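Weekly sync notes, structure subgroup
Attendees: PM, AL, DS (notes)

Item 1: joint prediction request from the bench team. They want all two components modeled as one assembly rather than separately. Inputs as received:
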Amino acid sequence: MNRSDIASPELGAVEVHGISRASFILRGAVAAGAVYGAGAVGPYVSSALAQSASSDVDILNFALTLEYLETDFYNAKGTAVALSAEAKTLARSFGDEEAEHVAALTKAITAAGGKPVAKPKFAFPVTDQASFLKLAYVLENTGVGAYNGAGPSIMDKQYLAVAGSIVQVEARHAAAIALLVDQPIAPNGAFDKPLTKAQVLAKAGPLIKS
Amino acid sequence: MPEPTTTESDRREVGAVETLARDDVERKKFLRMTGRKIGAGAAGAGLAAFIAACGSSKSSSSSPSAAGASSTPAAGAATTSMAGSSAGTDPSDLSIVNYALTLEYLESQFYAKVAKSGLFDGKTLSVLKSFGAQEAEHVTALHKVASGLGTPATEPVGKFPIHSAAQVTALAGTVENLGAAAYLGQAGNIKSKEILAAALAIHTIEARHAATLNTLLKKSPTPQGPFAKPMSMAQVLAVVKPFIA
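Output from the run, pasted for the record:
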């Protein structure tokens, strides 16, 4: 990826989802600040305006928060409610995979010289298998949208490769759950919809308690 | 999440892909930004040249590809569409889009044959038909994007063995898992942010298809575990070659 492409004024003027790229990146940085504290994104806000560049570490930390959420969901709720053999297998396997995502993202952030976010406390409104699988479906699909939304902003190809490798697995999870609950395998049709940070936070935010 | 209605949501979801394909102003702006030469598409160099290009390109893996001439000019053209770059350089966005387009053409043809085969019914048939419809939408979108960059790949002639439900399901699984790995393999090579966004939007659909077929085959939806593995153009070609007439 060519940094001068990212800094070019023409690229900043390109529309993404109806808002200019520069303000799209800026909004993302500000939204991330709401989750992690303004200090984490302070230095990046002005650079977003100057270069239309968002921080890879911020993006990875956003992904890490979601992966912490999914891991906790599968591990805690997967054992807390009564599940069929099939659902139990899925919960265990997917929980293990999300935990690997947490480990990989933590390692990447540290290697990038960043500070991995602390694991938040979560609360999941799940009481039985039906509500468990329904929320699993929402979370996995939100994860797909989050990674696809952030992907084009990632500057380092290594991190794009990691994100791509992870998002494919999230999409596989989403489809497997869809089959269990008889929901659409591809709820957005032929093209998965990229989500903005605000859209992701609208789904995931209410589950984050600290 | 509820199924979206066709028209409005199709416009919304195609998003970046539509922007590139339809909007003349955006396309010209984007071409100016990437400095891409228009029309610098694949030369009719054939299979051997493609393998040479993949072998020396940074984007390919170290695994060797089978050497040898293409069996027909059409196969040579199809495989050249999948490469499109001159030896020793990273693939251009046009060549990557044409590579994806070629794979989508093959998937679309495969599913069309499967739907007509009479081997499936009920829920399974309806799932396979929906996958075929989605691949056809990928063809349409990628063809438009390629046309905006230069010469789109011509549709290859696919040949797929269709014998039994079990064999076809297994073949579908192979094809979709391959497609997912192919997109993942090229994500880092795409220079345009907008084309990358489109590729990511398609990549995860192939992943959904793959996981579904794996489940139908009573295999894990994530056979590679927590991290999906990319495949290079050369690796994908080796798997796909028998399916191009």
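Discussion: Residues 65 and 238 of chain B are 7 Å apart (CA to CA).
Action: AL to compare against the crosslinking data before next sync.
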